[in-house]
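4.2 Preliminary Data

To establish feasibility before requesting continued support, the project team ran the inverse folding procedure on a target of 122 residues. The structure was first converted into the token representation described in Section 3, and no sequence information of any kind was made available to the design step. The complete token record follows.
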């Protein structure tokens, strides 16, 4: 299963596909991250579980980094597009898990966005 996460300039994170995410014990789960906020530097994408986690043998915090790729726009301006995939994680335990998704500027360590969706494992 893939959970698609988009970060917008207004500091809002959108879980477009699906929200809430639903999977089964034994399913492999991957987060796909993207944004075009225009930052040329790397972004850190963090998934974190404060309480219980369906991935207990793997830990409670997972990170991946995306580098901005320059794309020329009409008129000659340049925007930076980011995309990344998390490592696949296998759901080990059933339950309803509230977790966090955070986008962090790698240079300043400033949190650019944070959301707290649910992951439902049956």
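Position-by-position output of the design step:
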């Amino acid at each position: 299963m893939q959970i698609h996460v988009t970060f917008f300039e207004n500091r809002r994170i959108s879980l477009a596909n699906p929200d809430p995410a639903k999977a089964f014990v034994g399913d492999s789960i991957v987060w796909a991250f993207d944004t075009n906020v225009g930052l040329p530097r790397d972004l850190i994408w963090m998934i974190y579980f404060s309480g219980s986690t369906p991935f207990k043998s793997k830990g409670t915090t997972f990170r991946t980094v995306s580098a901005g790729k320059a794309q020329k726009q009409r008129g000659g301006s340049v925007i930076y597009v980011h995309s990344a995939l998390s490592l696949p994680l296998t759901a080990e335990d059933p339950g309803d898990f509230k977790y966090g998704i955070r986008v962090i500027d790698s240079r300043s360590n400033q949190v650019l966005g944070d959301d707290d969706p649910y992951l439902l494992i049956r």
